[in-house]
UniProtKB/TrEMBL annotation, chains A, B:
One of its GO terms (cellular component) is cytoplasm. InterPro entries: Glutathione-S-Trfase_C-like, Glutathione-S-Trfase_C_sf, Glutathione_S-Trfase, Glutathione_S-Trfase_N, GST_C, GST_C_Tau, Omega/Tau-like, Thioredoxin-like_sf. Its EC number is 2.5.1.18. This is glutathione transferase.
Amino acid sequence: MTIKSDDVKLIGGWQSAFVWRARVALNLKAVNFEFLEETIGQKSQLLLESNPVYKKIPVLIHGGKPIPESLIIVQYIDETWTSGPSILPSDPYDRAIARFWAHYFDDKLSPTIRPLSVAQGDEKKKLIKELGEGLVLVEDALKKISNGKDFFGGDQIGYLDIAFSSVLPWVRVIETLHEVKLVDEATTPSLVNWGEKYSKHDAVKDVLPEHEKLVGFAKFFIAKFVAPAASTSPH
Amino acid sequence: MTIKSDDVKLIGGWQSAFVWRARVALNLKAVNFEFLEETIGQKSQLLLESNPVYKKIPVLIHGGKPIPESLIIVQYIDETWTSGPSILPSDPYDRAIARFWAHYFDDKLSPTIRPLSVAQGDEKKKLIKELGEGLVLVEDALKKISNGKDFFGGDQIGYLDIAFSSVLPWVRVIETLHEVKLVDEATTPSLVNWGEKYSKHDAVKDVLPEHEKLVGFAKFFIAKFVAPAASTSPH
């Protein structure tokens, strides 16, 4: 089913890991949408009105109604455009497990990745250790859930693949910034394979930015917004 | 539909706000279950095996398969025992809004309530202000979502009512511990009404502990686990 483009809008930004989730889900369901890109470092009036509680991207606007929070958006897309491929598994237990790991990504992995981009010394070591241990747990989960296939969704990408969209590309940025290896053939071979296959998927390939572009953005963002704030901090 | 009690187990504790959610959802669906209470301050082998990632209650075990995380458990119960009353709304947009506010409770309100039980001075003032502002947002959301009826679910309790189970009784404990008013007729009349009606609901009344019992537990817990840790902290 293809919806008229003026029915579906997505407030986002090319660099936002959480926005990628919404875009991949819309692509998977072949939903046309208007992509409204926020200017980095600013918040549009539409964003402030559409997500007054968090004031964060992504926000999906469907028929004038705003839906914030990336995982909630992905579930909404799955439940609304039911004629496309299913995103969540059909079995309630499999759905619960998918929701559990998606929650883990947002609750444990993402909050480690963000401070890691600027962490130094012991703090950096501690966060890299935590992130590495978390990724090993995800490696084990992927092996179990995928039944040895490429994706969390088996042969097709699904909810957990879309949720993990927001993690691996930024882990690769952390690897480059700190010259470490977190996802490699020795410790997490299934995640390495996942990253290669997932980024080439038709619904994904125009969404995930090139690694070098993302590293460039991270350096620009740190220099412009993070480093000045740190140097004027009283601590 | 009533399931044999040995098919469904819930690892929990009478005092845990997140466990209340799972119990109310099971009661609403008339599911018989065995309630396995953890000893406070300890973790059973079954809990460690059933939720190795977080090691936290509640965990639902259905036919030997463990499901952690209270909101995931409630959704699982809704999707598994479909012949009982629906917990989530049927419309995808209403479901998204319900998921949004449930996320808000866990992301913003609960993390304020926990440190408030022991906060003092400026930190206490700051957290009380934050919590009060959050509860005003929830008051507005309740009015809008309930269409002026008693519950988030309208005339019946639903997902958001069950999610808010874990918030209001502990807000009442904070009010008693700090001699403040956070939910009252002047600022949040709909939440006051909600609290009165919700606690008397058949699926709820044997789940939520008496206020005085909960205050007693909070004082015991602070004295036994929080205060000693604070006094040996290097900060």
